[in-house]
Amino acid sequence: MTVTLAQAINRGIHDAMEADDRVLMFGEDVGKLGGVFRVTDTLQETFGTDRVYDTPLAESGIIGTAIGLAMYGFRPVAEMQFDGFAYPAFEQFTSHLAKMRNRSRGRVKLPVTVRIPFGGGIGAVEHHSESPETYWAHTAGLKVVSPGTVADGYAMTRAAIAADDPVIVLEPKRRYWMKDDLELPVTTEPLHKAVVRRPGTDVTVVAYGPMLKTAMEAADAAEEEGWSLEVVDLRSLSPIDTDTLVASLQRTGRMVVVHEAAQSLGPAAEIAARMQQEAFYHLEAPILRATGYDTPYPPAMLEEFWLPDVDRILDRVEEALDY
Amino acid sequence: MGASQPAGDVDPSTLLPPAEPVHLLDPDGTYHEDPDHPVDLDDDQLRMLYRHMVVTRKVDREAINLQRQGQLGVYASLLGQEAAQVGGAFALSEEDWVFPSYREMGAAVTRGVDTGKMLHLFRGTWLSDHDPYEHHFALYSIPIGTQALHAAGFAMGAKFDDNPIVTMAYFGDGATSEGDPHEAMTFAGVFKAPVVFFVQNNQWAISVPLDQQTAAPTLAHKAVGYGMPGHHCDGNDVLATYAVTRKAVDRARSGAGPALIEALTYRMEAHTTSDDPSRYRTRQEEEEAAKTDPIVRYKLFLEKEGLLDADLGEQVEAEAAAEATRMRDEIYEAPHGDPMELFEHVYVDDTGHFERQREVLATELAARDGEVSA
Ligand SMILES: Cc1ncc(C[n+]2csc(CCOP(=O)(O)OP(=O)(O)O)c2C)c(N)n1
Ligand SMILES: [Mg+2]
Q: From CA A186, how far away is CA A178, in angstroms rounded?
C-alpha cells in the first residue's frame, strides 16, 4: 500500500500498541486532534483515553512522568510537539532519562520512546525548525535515530518502542507527507545500522532523516555530471555505525556528510574524525560537510539559503573530486 | 463561546491548609488529641517510631564522621528532620513507593533500606547501590525537585493499573520554586494520581531562607492551585507528621487524588559537610531551633505514657550504635569501583557504543598494572 511517512509512523505506533498493552502514547494534542501533524490520528479512538492521552502543556512533565511510568512497568511513547519545544525537558532527558540505568547499576531500565518532529524546510515560524540532534546524541544513555524512508518510519518506530533503552526518534517533519510503498511486515536492518541506499563509486554521501531524500536527489543530479555517488542512510546517530561508513569510504575514497544541523560539533564532525582514524589511507580527499550554518535557524523566507540542498551537496562533491 | 468554566469541581476553601500547623505534641511531651488527625498506632508502633528516629540520628552522625575521616566525599545531614522523615514514611505501607531527594536517610531507615548502601553515592564508589525495587525506595535525586515528576508518573501508572499503592515524593522548601514540582503537581492533579508531595520545609535552601524563596502565605497554600488539599504540620512532631501524612495517604489510596504536605522543621546541620552556615545564619538561630528537637520531645511523650523505660531506651541506643557500626564497616570495607564497569550499565542493549573505547580503557588499565608490577 502507498502511505505517507506520517501514516507509516502512525501504523508503527498502532501495531506496537496492539502487540503490547503496556505501550502508552501521550503528549500535547496527541489525543482527539491526533497530533499537530496527525501522526497519532485515530489512536485514541482505537485504544482509549487510558492509553492515548493528552497531557498538560508541560514538556518536563511529559518526560518526567514517562520516567515514572517506565519505572512502574509501562512502555511509554512520548511526543514532543516540536524540536524547539523539547528544551524545557532538557534536565529530565539528560539527568534522568539518559542516566537512570547507569545510576542504578543496571537495576532500573527505562524503555521510553520519545518522538520529536525535527528539522526545517516547511516555512514554519521561529522555534519550529530546529535540528538539536547533537544535544541528544552527545548524551550517554540515549539512543538517537532518524528515519529517512517511509518503510523506516514504520520499522524504526516499532524497533524503538520494542527497545529496552530510551530512544529518541527524530522524525523529519518536512518528509511527513512523502509517499512510498509500505509492505508489512517490513524487513530492515536493526535500529543502529546504517544502510547503503544507492551504491556508487566516486563519492560517499552520508545523510539521515530529512536530508536522505535530498542526498538521493543529489545522486540523481550527479549522474548527469558523470559522477557516481554512493548514498549511505546513517539512520542512527547514537550509536554511529562506523563499520558501514568505513566500508563505503574504502570503496569510494571520498565522503561528504550532510545534515541540517549547524556545522560545528555536529554529527558530521564526529563522522569525519572516525573516518580519518579508521580509513586514513583510503582517503583521496578531506571529508567535507554540507550542513546548516553556525547561526540560529533563520526566518522562513531565508531558510532556503540556510538549509543544505542538492546544490550545496554537489558543490562539496565537486570539491572532493577536484581535491 | 460559553463563559470559561472552573477546571475543578471542588470548593477551593476545602483545599486550604489549616490556620495553624497541625501539632499534637508539646515540647514537654504532652499529647493533645485532635479528632481530625487520629494517631491509630499501637504501642509497638509508637516505640518503632522512636527506634527509627534514634537509629536515623545515629547513622546520620556516623555519616558525618565518615566524611570527616575522608571516607565520604560529602554528606547531607538531616539532623533535626528525623520526625518529618520518619513520621511521613511510617504512614506508608510496604507496597507503597518513596522518591527521595538526597537528604532522606530517615526515610530510608524507615523503609528498611541498607544505610551503608545509601552512602556509596557520597563515597563515590558507585552512583547508587541499593535495589529500588526491593524496598520501593527510588534512587537519590540531586537535581532539585526532579524526582517529584517520577513520583507523579509512577503514581499515574498505579492508577492506570487500579493498583492501590501510594507514591510519596520528598523535596525541600527550595524545590518548591522549581518547575518540576510544579509540573508534577499539575499532572498529579489532572490525573488524580495517588501521590503525596511531602515538603520538608527546613527553612533553608543552602544559604537562602524561605522568605527569599516564595511570597506564598505558606508552601501548603500552593496545593490549592493544583486542586489538591494542602496540609501543614509541625514536622518536629512525629505524631502530627504521621497523622497528617496518614490522612493524605489514605485519601490518595481511596482514589481521591494527590495531596501536598508541608512539614515545618529545621536543618540543624550545615547544608552539606562542604557548607559553612556561619556565613548566612546565626548561632542564636541554631540554638533556638535546637530547642524544638523532635527526638527529645517524643522521648518525653513515650516516658509519660509509660512506653519507654531506661532498659528499652538503652536497647534502642545499642541497636542504633550497632547499625552505625555496621554501616561504618561496610563503608570502610567497600571496594573501589571497577573501571571497566563504566561501560556496563549505560545501555540494556549496547549496540556498538563502546567497542573501541572499552579497548582503550582496558589498555590503559593494563599499562597501569604494568607500572605497578615493574
Ligand atoms: C536544579 C538544581 N539547581 C541547583 C542545585 C544545587 N543545590 C543543591 S541543594 C540546593 C538547595 C535545596 O534546598 P531545598 O529544596 O530546601 O532542600 P534542602 O537542601 O534544604 O533539603 C541547591 C541550590 C541542584 N542540586 N539542582
Ligand atoms: Mg530546605
A: 18
CB contact under 8 A, B128 and A105: yes
Taking only the tens place, the pLDDT of each residue in A5-21 is 999 999 999 999 999 99
List the residue whose alpha carbon is closest to atom 20 of ligand 1: B205
Q: Which CATH number do you get for residue A199?
A: 3.40.50.920
- The set of protein residues with a Cβ atom below 6 angstroms from ligand 1 is B 103, 142-144, 171-175, 202, 204-206, 267, 271
Is the same domain home to A174 and A290? no
**A40 burial type by CB count under 10 A (0-12 exposed, 13-18 middle, 19+ buried):** buried
The CATH number assigned to the domain with range B15-334 reads 3.40.50.970
Q: Does A185 touch chain B (CB under 8 A)?
A: no
Query: Are both A250 and A114 inside the same structural domain?
Result: no
Q: H or E segment at B90?
A: helix B82-90
Question: Is 90 exceeded by the pLDDT of residue B6?
Answer: no
pLDDT tens digit string along B123-162? 999 999 999 999 999 999 999 999 999 999 999 999 999 9
Q: Which residue in chain B is spatially nearest to A57 when comparing CA positions?
A: B183
Backbone φ and ψ for A208, nearest 5 degrees, come out as -155, 160
Distance CA B82, CA B100 (A): 14
3-class DSSP state for residue A219? Answer: helix
Question: Domain tally for chain A?
Answer: 2
Residue A189 in domain: no
Q: For the residues of A259-319, what is the DSSP string, one character each? A: EEEESTTSHHHHHHHHHHHHSGGG-SS--EEEEE-SSPPPPGGGHHHHS--HHHHHHHHHH
Asked whether residue A156 falls in the same domain as residue A292, the answer is no
Same domain, A149 and A20: yes
Of A24, A60, A239, the CB nearest to B180: A60
In this structure, the answer to whether residues A175 and A47 fall within a common structural domain is yes
Q: Is A282 a catalytic residue?
A: no
Separation of CA A213 and ligand 2 centre (Å): 54
Among residues A157, A181, A205, the one where a domain terminates is A181
Check if the interface score ipTM surpasses 0.90. yes
In the predicted model, what is the mean pLDDT of residues A178-202?
A: 96
Give the domain range for residue A102.
Answer: 2-181
Going from N- to C-terminal start, the domains of chain B cover 15-334, 338-374
For the stretch B69-110, pLDDT in tens is 999 999 999 999 999 999 999 999 999 999 999 999 999 999
